[in-house]
Each structure stands twice: as C-alpha cells, then as structure tokens.
Amino acid sequence: xxxxxxxxxxxxxxxxxxxxxxxxxxxxxxxxxxxxxxxxxxxxxxxxxxxxxxxxxxxxxxxxxxxxxxxxxxxxxxxxxxxxxxxxxxxxxxxxxxxxxxxxxxxxxxxxxxxxxxxxxxxxxxxxxxxxxxxxxxxxxxxxxxxxxxxxxxxxxxxxxxxxxxxxxxxxxxxxxxxxxxxxxxxxxxxxxxxxxxxxxxxxxxxxxxxxxxxxxxxxxxxxxxxxxxxxxxxxxxxxxxxxxxxxxxxxxxxxxxxxxxxxxx
Length: 266
Description:
Aminoglycoside 3'-phosphotransferase, Chain: A, domain 2; 2 domains; 5-stranded antiparallel beta sheet; two-stranded antiparallel ribbon
C-alpha cells in the first residue's frame, strides 16, 4: 500500500480557523475568487528574487489551494517573549519593504480581481499585503523570513500597507489592550520609529502618522462586518478583544498620543 499523508491542522488565523492544514511539505487551505490572481502575484515576486512567500502549487477541483510549507516560527497570542523585541519588529518592516519592491512591475493576468475589504481606497503602484499581522509572518532565529495569507492583497500605497502593519504589530493600542495579547509594557513610540527606520521612510513621516490615524478610525469596520454576518470565529475575537469599546479606546488613545508619535517618529 502507498503512503497516505496525514493532514495536520495549522493553528492561527481567524477567517480560516481550522481549515488550514499541512500535508507533508505542502499547505492546503480554502481558495477564493481572488486566488488565481494571488498565485500570479506570488510567482511574480519569487521570480523577482523575493522568496519570502509560499510557492503556489495548484488550485484543486475541490476548491482548495495548495502552496509550499515554510518552516519557522509563527507567533500566536499570547505572544512569546522573543517576539516582543524591537529588532524582531524591525526585521518584519524590512521584509515588508523587500516584498513591496518585488511587486513592482507586476502585470495582473487577464480577468484578475482583488479583495476590496482591506484595500487602500486610493489605490497605488505596488501590491499591498494588507494583513501583515503576527500570525501571518514566519520567523527564524527571531528574524522575519516570510509572509503568509495574501487573501486581502490589492493595489495600494506603501505607506498604507506599512500603517496597517504597524497598527497590528506595534501594536497601536492602549497598554491595557496591548496586554491582552502579552504585549503590555512596550514602548509604541520607539517601536513605530523602529518600523519607519527599518523600512527606510524619508525623514518627514507625518503622512505615515496621518494614515495610521485613518486606519485607527476605520480599523474595526472589517471585523464588525464579519460579526454582523454571524461569523462565529470573528464573534469570539470581537468579544475577546473588548468589542466596539476596544476600537473606540484605540482611536481616542492614538489621537491623544498623535503629537508624541510625530515628535518621536519624525
């Protein structure tokens, strides 16, 4: 009898909780209407020399997509101590920069389409990931080496994607809310500067701060839509993170801290 590969459920993520599985050196997960476009993007950036993304293998008739498995550590809440280091955050910003650079020149295939759920409303000349959260980054020896889950990728501006990443990974949150995921006691001002420096933003970073404010203003809309649609995984997350009040707290905290961010980050 031939060897039968066992599917191992991979932890992490909310949208596809329990549906992402490892089969040997491959990952199988639900595809969607954007998957063919995303596979073309992944092939493009890999050909451009950026290997920090999974290699797409196929989209199967059963509606699942197959990609290569990337070995490493994916931090999950409550996040481990090593993940709290500023140098880890900086390495992630550098990886995002390299990914952005590799998307330049991408020509979408005929009939290409992107998710609009987290997309930059102004569009742009690169392809944003739009969901660079801790659970979507692979690390080795505390250094970011790959990005995962491109379901929400779409054309946009570098500063928009970087602001979305910063909001989730600094995190841009009151210390009370940051502590819910084991990130209490961090210095968000210095951590945001670490992101800007590592990415290589120009000295005037006022636009970066402004876009972060906009992301905080609308940050809960995506989750709220999923909650209102009755998605149990998002309902659990919504309640666990403090519901609507958490997003209002974050918005108010950021506004009260905006000048300090400007003074620290540049």
